[in-house]
Design a protein that fits this description.
Blueprint: H1 2-17, E1 19-20, E2 26-27, H2 40-59, H3 67-77, H4 80-90, H5 96-106, H6 118-137, H7 140-157
Helix pairs in contact: 2-3, 2-6, 4-6, 4-7, 5-6, 6-7
Length: 158
Amino acid sequence: MKSNGKFKQYVALKKNLFNFDENNNLLDRYSEIEPDKLHPLVLAYVGDAYYHLYVRTRMLNFDFTHVHLLNDFSMKIVSAVWQARAFEAIKEEFTKEELALFKRAKNTKSHAPRVASVHDYHVSTGFEAVLGHLYLKKDLKRLDKLCKMAFTHVAKTL
């Protein structure tokens, strides 16, 4: 019955998520997104998407003819295991504020998938939350620096 409850939540969310005006234009619910007020898992959701795109784009610097190979490598690089290793390698570069957000996100209750240890999953969640926060703050220089360091570490040790 749990899935039935989830389905009801989905239907209710879908019904209320998107609103349109009389001309059928999609209306934004929020005029401004304030990263400091977002739940750590929402920040991780955004950070995960950004890091995926960053890695896929960087992979094009090495090969752009073998899509299957690019996908295999990028999926490995963005996995919780490798994100956790990357974080451990670059954590000294994090500011106090970034470390505080990392810890808050890492300690947020969530369900780890079976493909990673609980520890690696939580560390990767913290890492992604920091990336998501930087992205939403539009601190793209800092975001690029951390992603580049993480990617370089993984590339050296993969």
